[in-house]
Design brief:
mainly alpha, Oxidoreductase-like_N, Oxidoreductase-like domain-containing protein
Length: 116
């Protein structure tokens, strides 16, 4: 989806149950702003590079943050615009399918990095 497409303003809390659930956990204000920005931006979140995850099970891991941002983005954009989601497929099924695709088609990984 391109950002130049005309979009109508909406409340992401009405579209994303995941976002509502995450905000109830009292996130840091910076993380709240990041999630709201991802929910209102029509562009798909960018996956972190292989060198951005240290592999030491940090909390929160950049890959966990990416997964949350992607789920919120899909609930706000793909589900409502009809985007690249198949009919009748829920956001969680679509997210699971995209993670399976990433496992089948591995990208370049940093040598010695862990694959969680």
């Amino acid at each position: 989806m391109a950002a130049d497409k005309e979009t109508k303003p909406f409340n992401p809390l009405d579209r994303s149950p995941t976002l509502v659930k995450l905000l109830k956990t009292r996130l840091a204000p910076v993380r709240e702003r990041e999630l709201m920005a991802k929910a209102t931006c029509p562009d798909r979140p960018v996956k972190p590079g292989p060198g951005e995850c240290c592999g030491s099970s940090c909390h929160p891991c950049v890959m966990d943050n990416y997964a949350e941002e992607l789920r919120v983005w899909k609930e706000c954009w793909v589900k409502w615009d009809g985007g690249d989601e198949k009919e009748g497929e829920t956001c969680s099924q679509s997210l699971a399918a995209s993670t399976e695709d990433e496992k089948e088609n591995p990208t370049k990984k940093m040598p010695g990095s862990f694959d969680w």
